[in-house]
Amino acid sequence: MLISIMSGGSMQYSVLVGLVCLAIASFSSSVGSSNNTFLCLESERLALLQFKQGLLSDYKYNALATWESTKDCCDWRGIACNNHTGHVITLDLSFNFLRGEIHPSLLELRYLEYLDLSFNDFGGMMIPVFIGSLSQLKELKLGRANFSGHVPPQLGNLSNLHTLDLSNNENVSSENVEWLSHLSSLRYLNMSWVNLSEAVNWPQSLSKLTSLRELKLSLCNLPDVNLSSLSKNALETLDLQNNQFWGSLPELTGFSKLRELLLSSNNISGSLPESVGTLSSLEELDVSMNSMTGVITESHLRDLSRLQSLKLSGNGFYINLSSHWDPPFQLTSSLALSSCKLGPAFPKWILKQTNITELHLSNAGISGSLPDKFWDLFVHLYSLDLSINQICGKLPNLSTTIFWVVDLSSNLLSGAVPSFPPTLRFLNLSTNMFSDLSSSFCATRAPYLGFIEISDNLLSGELPNCWMQFSGLGLLFLGKNKLSGKIPSSLGNLKIMTLLSLKDNNFSGELPSLENCTELAMVDLDNNNLSGRIPTWIGQRLTTLMYLRLRSNQFSGIIPSSLCNLATIHVLDLSHNNISGGLPRCLNNITAMAVDIVLGMGVELVWKGIEREFGKNLLQVRSIDISSNSLVDEIPESITSMEKLTSLNLSGNNLIGKVPENFGNMKMLESLDLSRNQISGGIPASFSKLNFLSVLDLSHNNLSGRIPLGTQLQSFNATVYMGNFGLCGPPLTPNCSENGTTQADDDMKEDDDDGLISLGFFISTVLGFVSGFWIVCGSLLLKSSWRYAYFKFLDDSRDWIHVKTAVYKEKMQRRLQR
What we know:
The chain is of the alpha/beta class.
């Protein structure tokens, strides 16, 4: 074209050159102009700066650090503008650790399409009502931002919205979700963790959302509903986990486009409909942790060629699949069939799922040895749970696997504990028959291994001294074995260890230094042969200790006063040792016993005379047990200020003196045992305030006086007071005298008033009389007047003795009957 114009003459050529030059000049001018002016509109820039004023962040790299008044707001972090109009259309401040208030100046952003304030902390403020006036919004994300209160129904005005995420705001609720029905363009709705327990007719409101593809309402306390009412929205994801649904599942033919069906942790019963096998688009099926039963056949799985994850655990299903069945799917994620009946043979069809990453077959009725190539087939497996079966055999070297989690507990596995890969995080081999924990296990180099439990096995010999290579270990349970020798010193390198249990072994020698393990919350060394003094560093360094059990060892010496520094202790058990000296008078510094704790693992405790296991209930227990030692001296008065104490056992010692008068201040006591000591004096009247007392033993002491009147104290059997010969009153005796002495003492006093001090006095009187009789007998034969006087005296004496003897016999019979 240019050649044609040029051939037309010089005039046309000149005109063309001029036009080109003009275009170039115009373009250069526009480029220069864009470098000197802001694309951001002034009103919106000021609105954003005002919005910034209400927010704070402790994170130095937050988005607001780039918001400066001298810069174009379209270049600020988290901001995007329309390239043609300059209007702000995106505000993304997620994951910025922001707190403060959300200023209504955002209303100036009238063309805002995307607003994301998720993963911040707005301190429990309500979701601002004015957000419902941002009419151009297409995506609104407020998840995990610590909002509270009711969801404003004004959000129903956002007719252009296609994504709404209000999830993980636990203090947000909505009693009426009718406003959702107005969001006709909505395709994604996530209100998980929002309290919808009072929401009525919510399925009807959701059924109007014809564009909805993903619905996530887990942990919403949703009331029960017929799920078939949801089948009109063409759903691809239905997540209703952790709610209150009950009854059986409806037919699922209406959910033909489903990719994810997540219904775990409800109360659903009945069988799994066979129509689930027609959902050819299904990629994830999770109905675990319900109350479902019935038989799973090939019909349930026939068309699920796209299935990647199958979770049926925690139900009562019987898996009846042919041993030659060839699955239509190749799982790439999870296969979880725990508590389903699979065995006794290991299913062959599972061996074909070689790409799974999680295999959970706990309590599945599997017995015998695993298939020969089991450990070589699943090369992508990182989580394995075969616990609570009857699997036998030995484990091979597993150091080349990629396991993170291995749970083989409660089986019949034997031999040596093998080496594991450096990726391992969790290992549970408890309740098996492993016998060796030495060289092979020490070959493991797993710095991220946080949990080891190999308790209740047949491990013997000395514990290997290689624990320094498990620097990330937090929980170690090796109890109920036959381990002996000294506890290895390398345990002291586990600086982040929180729970240590070596109970029920044969460890001997002194306790090695664990003073660098300052995160310890539980130490259980019960039933070993450990000796020496209780280390002072326990109270000086382990200041977060909540559970200390040194019961049934050979510890000696006095109780170190440093134990009084254990301000968070809940269970202190030093019983059945050789501890001497007195109780520390600073025990009340264990203010004790006022901190609530939760230990995820079950721990054992002698409670009310019975060995019991406590899990989360341990937070209610505050116990001191120093029984069966050689303690001397008095019970210090300071102990009575431990008002949160629920159990105290000081029995089987040599304690003396009186029970502190203010003992009743420990009003939370449920169990008290002071038996088999040498405690004297009376039972304090304050005992009548121990209204929660259900176990009491004060027997075999030197207590005396009246048992205080109180509903609890009289409800116990008399045996709890036996062996205290000076005690009186119910339930030991019917009553006491006014001065608090026993009825036997009163009887003796009455005898004194009658001239008969004792049975010995009576006997001596008779003997004296007989002796006198024979001395004067000769005189009576010689002189008649003496003989007359003597026989008269004898008759009078006989009458007097008869009367007194009858009275004394009656009183003795009454006393013996009592």
